[in-house]
Amino acid sequence: MCATCGCGHTHEVITLEQKVLAKNDELAASNRAFLEGQEITAINLMSSPGSGKTTLLERTIRELTRTMAVIEGDQETALDADRIRSTGCPVVQINTGAGCHLDAAMLREAIDRLQPARRALLFVENVGNLVCPALFDLGERGRVVVVSVTEGTDKPLKYPYMFAAADLVVVNKVDLLPYVDFDLAACRAYVASVNPKAEVLALSATRGDNLDSWYDWLAAV
Amino acid sequence: MCATCGCGHTHEVITLEQKVLAKNDELAASNRAFLEGQEITAINLMSSPGSGKTTLLERTIRELTRTMAVIEGDQETALDADRIRSTGCPVVQINTGAGCHLDAAMLREAIDRLQPARRALLFVENVGNLVCPALFDLGERGRVVVVSVTEGTDKPLKYPYMFAAADLVVVNKVDLLPYVDFDLAACRAYVASVNPKAEVLALSATRGDNLDSWYDWLAAV
Q1: Rounded to an integer, what distance in angstroms lies between the CA atom of residue B187 and that of residue B157?
Q2: What's the CA gap between B92 and B40, in Å, rounded?
Q3: Considering only Cβ atoms within 10 Å of each terminal Cβ, which end of chain A, N or C, has fewer?
Q4: Please, which pLDDT band fits residue B5 given cuts at 50, 70 and 90?
Q5: What is the ipTM of this complex?
Q6: Exposure of A37 in the CB half-sphere (CA atoms within 13 A)
Q7: Which of A5, A106, A195 to mutate to test the interface with B (most CBs of B within 10 A)?
Q8: Which residues pair with A45 in a beta bridge?
C-alpha cells in the first residue's frame, strides 16, 4: 500500500519514502551488476491491469528462439505464472498482497528462486498499476510501458511519471482500433511531450500486427 | 507514491502506514458526518486507467435530472474536469502529482472548494488505479469499482482488495464483448468469491446498454 496522505504525517512520510527509495536504488544497483555479470537482459513490463502484458509475453515466448525466463508480479493468484508455464518457459510468481508494485528486493529473491540461464532474456511483469511501479528501479536493462487502445488517448498526460520512466511504449490491441475512440498520432505526441526519448510501437499481441518491431527492439536493447 | 519495499524498513513502513490509515479514517468519519448533515450522497468511483469512469459520468449527468457535482482525481492535467465542466455540472479537479490515490483530506479540501448543493449526488472519480485507492476511506456513501471487458475476466481475483471494498461493480464497455475474450458469468463468480455482497451491473456507457440499472442503483444507495 501507499502512504501519501497530506494529513499531518506529511514530513514523516516524505522522509520515509526517501529512505525507502534510496535503499531500493542500492538494491537495484546490486541487481543490475549481478544481471550484467550474467549477461542477462532484464525487461520490466509495466501497465494498467488488463493491457495485455501476459498475452504479449505468451506470444513472444512462442515466436522467439532465445533463452527466456519470466518473473510475474500480481497482488494475488498464480494465474499469469500458470499461463507462462504452459508455454514451457521457466517462471516464478511474486504475490505482493496489498502491495502495489515490485521492488528491487522482491526481484532479487525471485531471481534467486528462478536461477535464469546465463545470457537469458528475463521478462519481469510488474503489478498492473500505471502509477507506483514507475518509482521503483529494479535493476532492469529496459523499461516497457504497455498501454492498450481501449484505455484512451490521454493516458501519457494523466500518468506522466510512468511514461517518463519508459524506454519503450507499446500501444497494444490495435486490432480493436475500429471499435474505440483512440487517436494514435495524438497518443504518440503525448508520449513525446513527457518523454522525447521513448520509442513507441503500435501492435496487437492477439492478432500479431507489427510484432517484428517488438522483436527488433528486444534484440537491440 | 507508495512505500512498501521489504528492504529493511519494513517495520518502520508498516507502523507509519498504520498511522496514516488511522488518521485517514478519522478524517473520513468527519467527512461522512458532514456529508450526511448536508444529505449529500457521495459515490467513490474507482478503476484501472481508461475503464470509462468519466464517460459514465458524462452520460449520467446528461440523462439524470438530479442535482449533481463531481470531484475529479488524476495525477496530472484537468482533462477530466474539462469534460465534466462542458456538461454544465459543477466540478473540481484534484491533481495528486506522484500520488496514487485520493485520501479523506484531499476530499475535504475539494468539497470546501466545490461547495456542493444540499442533497446533491456527489461523484468522486478516484485516480485510475486498481490497487491503492481501495485502502483509503473518503467518507463516501457508496464505492463503485468500474472494470471494462477489455481488461480480462480475472481482475477480481488478481486485485481482490479493490473488489472486496466495492458496494457495486460496474462491468463497462459491453459493446466490445464481440471483439474480446471476456466471460461475464465467470467474472460475476469471481466478484462473488471475493465479495459476496457486491452487486454487479454490466453496461455500456458509450452505447447506453443497461444504464437504467445504474440509475436505479444510484436512486437507492
Answers
A1: 9
A2: 16
A3: C
A4: very low
A5: 0.92
A6: 6
A7: A5
A8: A125, A144
Interatomic CA distance for residues A111 and A128, integer angstroms: 20
- pLDDT tens for each residue of B189-214: 999 999 999 999 999 999 999 999 99
Do A180 and B176 lie within an 8 Å CB cutoff?
A: yes
Tens digit of pLDDT for each residue in B90-129? 999 999 999 999 999 999 999 999 999 999 999 999 999 9
Element housing B2 (H / E): none
Contact assessment for residue A67 and residue A119, using Cβ atoms and an 8 Å cutoff: yes
Q: Is the pTM of this model over 0.90?
A: yes
- Segments of chain A scoring below 70 in pLDDT: 1-9
Residue A135: is it exposed, middle or buried by C-beta count within 10 angstroms (0-12/13-18/19+)? Answer: buried
Beta-carbon separation of B131 and A136 below 8 A: no
Determine the distance from the C-alpha atom of residue B167 to the mean position of all C-alpha atoms in its chain, rounded to a whole number.
11
* 3-class DSSP state of A69: strand
A96: chain B residues, CB-CB within 8 Å: 4
Average pLDDT over all residues of chain B: 95
C-alpha cell at B153: 475476466
Chain B: closest CA distance from residue A161 (Å): 7
Residue type at B55? T
- Cα of first residue to Cα of last residue in chain A, in angstroms, is 32
Whether residue A127 and residue B129 make contact (CB cut-off 8 A), yes or no, is: no
Angle between helices A104-114 and A10-37 (to 10 degrees): 30
Walk me through the domains of chain B, giving residue ranges and CATH numbers.
10-220 (3.40.50.300)
What is the average pLDDT across B161-169? Answer: 97
> What DSSP assignment string belongs to A2-56?
B----SS-HHHHHHHHHHHHHHHHHHHHHHHHHHHHTT-EEEEEEESTTSSHHHH
CA–CA gap between residue B191 and residue A68 (Å, rounded)? 34
